[in-house]
Amino acid sequence: MRRFALAAALMLSPTVAHAWGGTGHAVIDRAAIQAIPDGGPVFLRRYADYISASAALPDSWRGDAEGFSKIEEDPNHGWFREQFAFLKPIPRSRYEFILALYKHYETIKQSDPATAARTNVRWTGTLPYAAMEAYERLIVCMRAIRATQASGGDASVPEQHCAFQAIRLGHYIGDGSQPLHNSVNSDGWLGPNPNGYTRDRSIHGRFESRVVDRIGLTAADIMPRIGAPAHLHGDMFDAVLAFLDQSGDQMETVYKLEKRDGFNNTTDKDVRALVYERTAAGAAMLRDMLCRAWAESAVPPAKVTPSPLNFSNPRFNPETGSAPA
User: Fold this and answer.
1) 3-state SS, one letter per residue, for the chain
2) What is the pLDDT of residues 195-204, one digit of tens each?
3) What is the pLDDT of residue 19?
4) Comparing C-alpha atoms, which of 234, 177, 184 is closest to residue 207?
5) For residue 211, what are the CA distances in angstroms to 23, 129, 183, 218, 315?
6) Which pTM does this prediction carry?
């Protein structure tokens, strides 16, 4: 109970900025867990209260007073794709991505200092890498659950490890489902503005927190919209990138709806539809990743030869000291 109380206290801390608000994140996580089919990681149902109460926990790691934590965590919550349109394909390594940004910064810092000022890890984001890191840690702790169960042992400890990773994954996927987390226009319209969209930074919080709370969003609202499990096959990193692109494509819709009535009308069917669709998309993606991780955990880990750290690996990158995934 102390664990749940601590999570709830962190979620309600007035010094923490919550993406989707505490309500939205908690609803996404709870709906995702409820949507896990039999045969999936159903053990997570026992931790649904803990996970949903802790859904905003990663935001608490971004306080100004905790500088080491903040500088590592801040980029994990955004994916401002306009900033790295020059970069194709997206590297399969967090550090290759950061290095590519810096090289581009060096190229343009004299000719385009305004763009260069945001060509860095903080103002581009690392959300898909954070999501994939949590996803693969889930696979590892799920293997531990299977191994413990096979030996007749108590799997409660590895289950708790998985519940914590589900909190991390759920937060990043929840952030990714919110369109404003996928654009430089995250906190008010930047640059040329022929359509007269608001430049008020509060649009972010008004959409993801005030609107969600005013309409009283619950898991029951989005459960019918989640659909059957998907992403059962294929490359998960590519799937996450596609998920973020689909969300980012809705960014201007948020601004159009704000321009219409400033999110003051909670009966606006289009505003409600966007909230329901985006939170359901987040819950569906989270459910899919939880189920896919469980399936992956049933297979012994692949043997990588040569090791990613071996200089003879054909994909070894001397700039990062490792081969990408």
Assistant:
1) CHHHHHHHHHHCCCCCCCCCHHHHHHHHHHHHHHCCCCCCCHHHHHHHHHHHHCCCHHHHHHCCCCHHHHHHHHHHHCCCHHHHCCCCCCCCCHHHHHHHHHHHHHHHCCCCHHHHCCCCCCCCCCHHHHHHHHHHHHHHHHHHHHHHHHCCCCCHHHHHHHHHHHHHHHHHHHHHHCHHHHCCCECECCCCCCCCCCCCCCHHHHHHHHHHHHHCCCHHHHHHHCCCCCCCCCCHHHHHHHHHHHHHCCHHHHHHHHHHHCCCCCCCHHHHHHHHHHHHHHHHHHHHHHHHHHHHHCCCCCCCCCCCCCCCCCCCECCCCECCC
2) 999 999 999 9
3) 58
4) 177
5) 11, 29, 20, 13, 47
6) 0.93
pLDDT at 11: 37
Q: Which residue has the tokens 């949507």?
A: 35
pLDDT at 265: 87
Amino acid 21: pLDDT: 76
- A 10 A CB-CB count for 43 gives 18
So what's the pLDDT on residue 253? Answer: 98
| Regions of the chain short of the pLDDT cut 50 | 1-18
What phi, psi does 39 have (nearest 5°)? 100, -15
Q: What is the pLDDT of residue 171?
A: 98
The token pair at 150 is 């096979």
pLDDT value at residue 22: 87
